[in-house]
Amino acid sequence: MIFSQAELSLLPEADHAAGVVLLIDKPLDWTSFNVVAKVRGMLSRWNKVKRFKVGHAGTLDPLATGLLILCAGKATKTITEYMDQEKEYTGTFTFGASRPSYDMETEIDAEFPVDHINEALLQEVKTTFIGEIMQRPPIYSAKQIDGKRAYDMARAGKEFKVREALVEVISFEWTAFRLPEVDFKVRCSKGTYIRSLAHDIGNAAGSGAYLSALRRTASGPYRVENALSIEELGNTLTRPI
To answer: Which of 137, 141, 156, 184 is the most exposed place for a label (fewest CB within 10 A)?
Structure first.
């Protein structure tokens, strides 16, 4: 059973071992693993077991917020189904600078002119990023390179390249212009890096850009407006003393 705001009251009496799916609104600065560990602890205590089985269906970076789908119990067998769904994001690109991680995790490494950037130019540039595109993931990503995580190698100062991958940007719109900041809304296939999209669009606009805010608003038919906060889940799965 899938638990969102509407079904929250039913969660305590559900057969968690048989399988539950939780829609969680991931907080800022939490890793996806942090959320999994927290929920695993709640379910383990509630069900009085040492370690309840919990996994997530698609990583969200620590600096991103929004919908994280967790599968628990036997529902962990269905994780791939949720991972394969289209994703929707909103957020902000900041033009005029670049960062090695393509987001706020690392410091600015280069600055670029922005005087020529305007709404008309960005509307034109974005059209080349709609549809199937080849995209290179950031070096600060969880991609495996010779059995090692790319972000571990990047933080160790090693030089390497991440292979390009075919992804699909299904829809892309600018929602607000406050140059050098521009807000966006994107719907895309699994495996799409919005950080790379920011970096590549900055280059295409004759400048630089990085991702300065990101929120996952949907995964398939499931929306963050219906998701549970960590606090709500904790309050629901707390047994009276």
So the answer is: 156
